[in-house]
Specification:
Elements lengths: L23 E3 L5 E5 L1 E2 L3 E5 L6 E2 L4 E5 L4 E3 L4 E10 L5 E9 L7 H8 L8 H7 L25 E5 L9 H8 L1 H14 L4 E6 L4 H8 L4 E4 L9 H9 L14 E5 H11 L7 E8 L6 E6 L4 H7 L9 E4 L6 E2 L13 E5 L17 H5 L6 H9 L19 H5 L6 H11 L18 H10 L22
Parallel strand pairs: 1-15, 10-11, 10-13, 11-12, 14-18
Antiparallel strand pairs: 2-9, 3-4, 4-6, 5-8, 6-7, 8-9, 14-15, 16-17, 16-18
The structure holds iron/sulfur cluster (SF4) (2 copies).
């Protein structure tokens, strides 16, 4: 079955793919990694290394204002600190590390680097030092950094389901990392004894999850269909606590995070590893069975596709994310970060020949919108740059879920139009316009060219050559 942009499909039932690989494919460490230092609107790391410096895997290479760290996911040499286009299409600074055969930095030395001995580190310090933003301070669904004091947590929601219909990382994780998830639940019981813990799973996993985790956590099933899995709708419903759209969960006594995040918490709280690996699902119209991979943070899209024996040139567009909220990339040299959940490879035939046609006022967008916005009207105002007029239509409630654009027969870029409204009508946006001060957008492309020239740099250790072919429909 293929995901298509047909507007005939009822939006609540945008289906998840029926078949996907339940196992995890490990992509070997690449020859170089590129680590973005800024997640606009969320977190900014100041580099703590210099060009030419040798680093061991785990070495702290950047630190944020509030002491959260980012680490070298491989041992090697810092070859450059440059500006790149991030997956969210922001121009951000990044550190490029070329891999070499140096040993990894033992965790006690990482804590020494942080300034607090491992034995003396509190849970909060361990999380900060090892690159995991604590669920006690994390306001919403993203890796954000805030100083606010939040109320006590009443409910902890652990999502073992993913939003995008082509992303399966949390389904796969709870089945493949059962013991570690159990350990995470035990940690949560000690750290937040009074909070109710709820694990949200797909319906086909309910009985199994009851057996595995039922003594430690309440199991709740998420309805299938994209609309029912959008985090801002799912979390308040499961918690039974009304939370205004796009408000911080923590401000309402709720902590919500994914099963993958719980794994990273376990590694940090046990003091065993920093957050330097990311799970993501690679899917696409012509891929028979989506595959969930684990990559080193900073691996580029090109390196992942090469390992999976997928030809990036064959696809008309490569999206970071999925078909609903994914962002098309300018280049396959985009590095994958701690916040990348999927890659979606679009074929030519999936892209409409004509887009942004005149609105016919058919009303599909408005009927489909899960938060009942007058999407077509907002779009029309935006088209005529009448952004202030859209304030009355409550664009701040938009989840940017993409359903309206998915069902629009005129293929209008409705989400982008709403984003413009939010920006120009003064409504706070999830991604404020904090542009990096760095220049040189094509620096990474230039480095890649140099890298392909064996005389340009010492190429270190050869990377995995791709022995995990993914079946592609012809
Ligand atoms: S924006 Fe698209 S879906 Fe909405 S009313 Fe206009 S044509 Fe119909
Ligand atoms: S993107 Fe916004 S306007 Fe469009 S359907 Fe989702 S919530 Fe409604």
């Amino acid at each position: 079955m293929q995901i298509s942009r047909s507007f005939l499909k009822p939006p609540a039932n945008i289906p998840r793919l029926p078949e996907w690989g339940r196992e995890v494919v490990f992509v070997p460490e690449p020859e170089y990694v590129v680590i973005p230092l800024q997640y606009p609107g969320r977190i900014l790391y100041k580099p703590s290394v210099k060009i030419g410096e040798q680093v061991g895997q785990n070495h702290i290479i950047g630190r944020s204002r509030l002491g959260h760290c980012i680490h070298a996911p491989v041992s090697g040499v810092v070859r450059d600190i440059l500006a790149i286009w991030s997956a969210k299409i922001f121009h951000v600074p990044a550190i490029l590390i070329q891999r070499s055969q140096r040993p990894a930095l033992p965790l006690p030395e990482v804590f020494q680097q942080y300034g607090i001995p491992l034995e003396a580190a509190s849970s909060d310090t361990k999380l900060k030092a090892l690159g995991v933003i604590s669920p006690w301070t994390r306001p919403g669904r993203y890796q954000e950094e805030v100083e606010e004091a939040f109320p006590e947590i009443r409910k902890i929601i652990i999502r073992a389901v993913d939003e995008e219909p082509t992303v399966f990382i949390n389904d796969v994780i709870i089945q493949n990392y059962t013991l570690k998830i159990t350990r995470g639940l035990v940690h949560l019981a000690h750290l937040s004894p009074r909070a109710e813990k709820i694990l949200v799973v797909s319906d086909y996993l309910k009985e199994w999850a009851e057996q595995q985790f039922g003594k430690l956590v309440k199991i709740v099933v998420a309805r299938s269909g994209y609309k029912h899995r959008i985090s801002q709708l799912l979390v308040p419903k499961v918690a039974g606590i009304p939370i205004p759209l796009n408000a911080a969960y923590r401000a309402h006594g709720v902590a919500a995070f994914s099963a993958e995040y719980l794994l990273n918490m376990v590694d940090a709280l046990d003091g065993t590893a920093p957050f330097t690996g990311k799970f993501l699902t690679v899917a696409g119209t012509s891929i028979e069975k989506p595959v969930t991979v684990k990559v080193t943070v900073g691996t580029t899209i090109r390196q992942v596709l090469k390992y999976l024996k997928l030809d990036g040139n064959r696809y008309a567009r490569i999206l970071v994310g999925g078909p609903m909220q994914g962002i098309a990339q300018y280049t396959d040299l985009t590095p994958l970060t701690k916040t990348t959940h999927g890659l979606y490879l679009m074929d030519e035939e999936e892209i409409p020949e004509e887009t942004n046609l005149t609105c016919t006022n058919c009303g599909r967008c408005t009927r489909a919108c899960p938060v009942n916005l007058q999407v077509h009207l907002i779009g029309r105002y935006a088209e005529y740059s009448m952004f202030m007029e859209t304030r009355d239509f409550h664009t701040e409630a938009c989840l940017e879920c993409g359903i309206c654009a998915y069902v629009c027969p005129a293929h209008r870029p409705l989400v982008q139009l709403i984003q413009l409204c939010k920006k120009f009508s003064g409504i706070s946006n999830e991604y404020p316009q904090q542009q990096s001060e760095c220049g040189a957008s094509s620096a990474l492309e230039r480095w890649e060219l140099d890298f392909q020239n064996p005389n340009a740099v010492d190429s270190g250790v050869a990377s995995g050559d791709g022995d995990q072919p993914v079946a592609v429909r012809n």
